[in-house]
Amino acid sequence: xxxxxxxxxxxxxxxxxxxxxxxxxxxxxxxxxxxxxxxxxxxxxxxxxxxxxxxxxxxxxxxxxxxxxxxxxxxxxxxxxxxxxxxxxxxxxxxxxxxxxxxxxxxxxxxxxxxxxxxxxxxxxxxxxxxxxxxxxxxxxxxxxxxxxxxxxxxxxxxxxxxxxxxxxxxxxxxxxxxxxxxxxxxxxxxxxxxxxxxxxxxxxxxxxxxxxxxxxxxxxxxxxxxxxxxxxxxxxxxxxxxxxxxxxxxxxxxxxxxxxxxxxxxxxxxxxxxxxxxxxxxxxxxxxxxxxxxxxxxxxxxxxxxxxxxxxxxxxxxxxxxxxxxxxxxxxxxxxxxxxxxxxxxxxxxxxxxxxxxxxxxxxxxxxxxxxxxxxxxxxxxxxxxxxxxxxxxxxxxxxxxxxxxxxxxxxxxxxxxxxxxxxxxxxxxxxxxxxxxxxxxxxxxxxxxxxxxxxxxxxxxxxxxxxxxxxxxxxxxxxxxxxxxxxxxxxxxxxxxxxxxxxxxxxxxxxxxxxxxxxxxxxxxxxxxxxxxxxxxxxxxxxxxxxxxxxxxxxxxxxxxxxxxxxxxxxxxxxxxxxxxxxxxxxxxxxxxxxxxxxxxxxxxxxxxxxxxxxxxxxxxxxxxxxxxxxxxxxxxxxxxxxxxxxxxxxxxxxxxxxxxxxxxxxxxxxxxxxxxxxxxxxxxxxxxxxxxxxxxxxxxxxxxxxxxxxxxxxxxxxxxxxxxxxxxxxxxxxxxxxxxxxxxxxxxxxxxxxxxxxxxxxxxxxxxxxxxxxxxxxxxxxxxxxxxxxxxxxxxxxxxxxxxxxxxxxxxxxxxxxxxxxxxxxxxxxxxxxxxxxxxxxxxxxxxxxxxxxxxxxxxxxxxxxxxxxxxxxxxxxxxxxxxxxxxxxxxxxxxxxxxxxxxxxxxxxxxxxxxxxxxxxxxxxxxxxxxxxxxxxxxxxxxxxxxxxxxxxxxxxxxxxxxxxxxxxxxxxxxxxxxxxxxxxxxxxxxxxxxx
Length: 1000
Description:
Oligomer: single chain
Helix content: 25-40%
């Protein structure tokens, strides 16, 4: 029953198929499982070149790679896998799950596999962390987010129960075991887990259809509460000491806090399957470890001399050096790691006086000798860490809970005086209520009789092992009784279905599961029993043992579990245990000297409680009322907009990736008849290349463009020909634009700029060729009347003839081998008031907009797409005046707008049929471009800052004080009158009230 090999087998099977370059995706649960079972070199040997998390969204797409997913069948993993399969990044997927898949889960996978990239789905039951060949963990260290207990020490948290069932089931399936189940009778949690596992085995009978053995395997479910002593003791074996003093998390040890540690040793790997020295000595005591490490260092030194360059004198020496050099480097790194670990352990043992502490702990745990004065001396010693003082007092309380409760109380008070916080001191009573003598099935200390003490004294002096290794975990006694057939069904019953003679048969395979977490000290007991069983020299001969737990505890994680669990238990868990409350003191927190008033006529505990409660309510409500009084609110109202003659500033920034700047024209028209054609004032045009990158030195701005510069350079008296077009009043067409206007007035199409002198001089053809594949960004401000109007962004230039705008579109529509269309991105489009160009007012307005959630404009970030030249985009905007009024009287005027849009394909003409067969006729022919039609709302929205008045705050406070005191006095009077009536009738309450306070 080697769980390390079982999981390694699963991992090897997974990564062996397919035989090509692969990616391995894991989730947070399976990552430590794989890291404990496979090295990087093992994965690389099977062509696994990348290992990553399934929920990492930044992974690159590599369609040539195959993907192996090893996941826990949890909701989080299914969601991440579904997202992966909807947008697959790899060519094929092989899905492996660490536990049983439901039919619903398989159907869900089939639904999301739209691209049919999943090639294989299998269940590999590796839903646990294999720490040692005979030790596994479910990696469920209880905390506030993942509790183990429900609302009492006898109730499971539902999610924790399901996780335990899944983990133990996976162990059984991976080892191909269908066991009978025994559990500790005093633990309802153990029975509940056994029943659930048995139900799971019966419901998945096909999976558990293994070859029957003469004696079925045994699953023995124990409860940590029956032995709280073992996780509290200071361990003295290598692996257990590292876990206690430094912490082992999934085979890794963090040494970053060790003084003067080398960078490569800040985090080291410590597993038996990759470290031969650790494999040989992880069970060694601290005394034997020093001797073993010394020999290990000397062996390395001899290798160093053998690999010294001065010792290479022949070709065979060179060949030997090259062959052994990788192993030599690996040996050097391993020696450095263990020297650093043992050195840090020695430093911590010396700093925390653990040798002195450990001797007293062993005496308390075994009863072989622990005097109150020795414990008091250590608690009062400033060199002892507060955490170790707490552990010591807890051990004393567990040992002498019934016989010396007053000494327990005095030690708690002494702790509080010597650096232990009140919050930690509370845990003494919590532990006694959860795992004290009344809660345990068996007395942990009854076996330590005079005879036992005599055997302990006669063991001889063998260094550290004799003094610091006297205690043996309670699991050892349980297993000894099991092997000898003395484990009674009255204490460890079978679940139904075990058979009539199940208790008389010694099982060949025993799986022990510890609810609440196991320890490395118990793992050492199991490992040594397995060694004795293999040698055949003990009562355990022929029996194989496997130990597991919800987690592997050290003292800190055990007490953290107790602290977290107590928060969900009734408040009585902080009180002295029943039966000792009359002698043990309460540890109530000081209430700061709050007393009831001296001038009241009758003092009652109920009155005191109501007074304190009323004071707390008054303070809470008054504080909330004060915050409400200081809070600045924004009230919104609507009024008629009475402004006249105002102007609007339109701030725009729009990119047209497939319209050159020389073709793009900006025109404004409004209902008053005012027209602004080809606006250039405060407008910046930036040429963009095919990638959308601005062309250097290409910004066109201001009032003077290239044509104006050319005209200024021509000689005075120059008069250009209009080439048959309608001549302007001056009779001359001095620019290419004037020639085009003359052609339009004549009704001709302007399509041969190469034959026009003015166009040739202005470089019209060169512009067409140079900018034919470019785009344009147009940005700036346009000032318009505050009336209904529209803004045109269209190709060519507009010419007003007979009250209509005509557009010269030949350059836009000509076939020059480039794609032209009015696809565009609106980066910004805002209507602004003049106040927004005052820096102080603009800052206030921006802050208020952000508070109200109206800082963004509706069209900002909008993208219009088309692939056709003859395509028109129309935006219909409703502009609403907005005014902000601050507390200090400032007024900021701005504008908001709403937007809808309409798109039209002009190739369909003035009439078209919709997809539903409806005939639609358009009133105008339309022009390609983007058109913004805006209307002005007759209403104005006013956002005014307000604050509650001081008179309102004062009135509310008085109402709170008077109301609370009145209600409290009424309740107190009713309770007092009821008590008097009960006293007169002879039914007074038992004990006359509270006798003990809680440890709060």
